Amino acid sequence: MGALAALALLAACSDDKPMTSGTSGGAGTTAAASAVVPGSEEDLKTNVGDRVFFLFNASGLDTDGKGTLDRQGAWLGKYGSVAVEIAGNCDERGTEEYNIALGQRRANSARDYLVAKGVAPARISTISYGKDRPVALGSNEDSWKQNRNAITSVK
């Protein structure tokens, strides 16, 4: 019984953040966020959000995705020398060829939105990993939702 209590205490102290179906990273500030270097990839993840999510077989942006990209666009406006790469990803279903093409459409959708918001196209590159880089393991809807994304990272 004591061992279980100790294990629960250690798990509660863990700094691993669970994945959610919303954006990764938020606009709120925390004590950990104050140690983040402004304009860094960690700043993007922690204070802005680094990914948008998509419906099955879709590359269109929803309201949450547009909100995340609006914050990314403002952040990129603040840090004018930062260049980013947007990686499009898919869940495990479908052929490799289909998922590479869908991942590219997702990355392009996010890039096009940022460009329309005033970010210079030369600052944004895109790549598709299809289904080759899942962020959540598992063959269920919760995992698939997490893996249908476009992730922005600092180059």
How would you describe what is shown here?
By secondary structure, the chain is α+β, with helices and mostly antiparallel strands. It has one domain (38-154): 60s Ribosomal Protein L30, Chain: A. Helices cover 44% and strands 14% of the residues. It contains six helices and four strands; from the N terminus they run αααβαβαβαβ. It has a four-stranded mixed beta sheet. Helix 5 links the parallel strand 2 (84-89) and strand 3 (124-130). Helix 4 (63-78) packs across helix 5. Mean pLDDT is 86; it is low at 1-26.
- Uncertain regions spanning at least 5 consecutive residues: 1-26
Shape: globular
Structural class, by secondary structure, is alpha+beta
Strand content: 5-15%
Task: Indicate the CATH class.
Answer: Alpha Beta
